[in-house]
Design a protein that fits this description.
single chain; 6-stranded parallel β-sheet; 14 helices; about 35% helix
Amino acid sequence: MKILFVSLGCDKNLIDSEEMLGDLMKEGFEFTDDEEEAEAAVVNTCCFINDAKKESIESILELAERRTAGQLKALIVTGCLAQRYSEDILREIPEVDAVIGTTAQGTLTETLRTVLKSGKIQGQEAIRLEDLRRKPRVGADRVLTTANGSGYLRLAEGCNKHCTYCVIPSIRGPYRSVPMEEILRTAGELAGQGVRELILVAQETTVYGTDLYGKKMLSELLHELAKIEGIEWIRLLYCYPEEVTGELIRTIKEEPKVLHYIDMPVQHASDEILKKMGRRTDRKQLEEVIALLRVEIPDICIRTTLITGFPGETEKDHRTLKSFVRRMKFDRLGVFAYSREEGTPAAKMQGQIPAPVKKKRLRELMLLQQEIAFKKARRMKGRTVRAIVEGRIAGEDVYTARTYMDAPGVDGTLFIETQRELMTGDMIDVRITGSDQYDLIGLPAD
């Protein structure tokens, strides 16, 4: 039987999808990207913000039409939306045969076979939820979907921060680290599949190990990962600024395989808004950690994310944030308009900002960052950098690649102009010859 598998949302969700694909493959299922060929469908959903919810619901509804027409024998919804709105999904979209929560995804093959055998699961049996405090799933075989020399490596599940705007603790549970031996085993398997760049993810990578070992173990883990043959790059995502220690900075600086890149979401720069958000830093502390990173690692690439339009955000707060962005000159920056999520403390706060104001502030921040980013890209001309090849543009002697400054899917692209034949996953030195807005252009250096 051919399964259409739709994976939405973040890279943590992608790992879940790869594990579920591995489960299905072991049971003899095949996969297709063609809706016309599919005999059953699985949608792994996201609901972090309203736009993500909308995308997930639209994907389910589109497949529900095929289920009604009898073109699909089963439609199963899993992931964050399923965890948060399991009963609503079954009530509002009766074409869905079962919903599987974030900690119950190991039951997918059993659930799918039950649906295929009986035609429908009745009542509460159609909802598969398990304790959000259960240990992270380990030992699952994955079908790697990142065919570009990179692979995501999960360090932990859940979060203990409880920022006032965030639903993650309620749908992913408390912070639970994956044992180090399991992480190293998975990393070795990824290397055996041709992965050369490990991208470390969790809701927060910087407190890895505190629940298992009683202390932060990220630096030690990085040193152990660097010993794995075949791994050349190790990229850090989701580092909370208050947890970026001197030890971690030294590790990034001194461990050759750890990229001089850090994804460190700061969310805002107004002390009043940061406090309302439940963040654990103020503007002074943010500026100090950014300054320390740049002093210790002069070529560090700092990526961050901001939230604009948080409840109570005044024009003064917005100007403070713009001033902060202008002064910090982040290498990479993304901005989200605040999304009012039910069940969060922020949703009940006074001073909700109208959508047009949020959009205006977002646009102003992105235009400011655009100016900064374009200048930084132009200054790259003449430098030689290491890059990982991702593919070739059809019909042209141009390849797409990424430098150490670019995480897949969120940052820029390096276009390599050459008649030489390159392979996806190759790592080569590239001399930058120019730029096009956020992206770089270059030639092989040798």
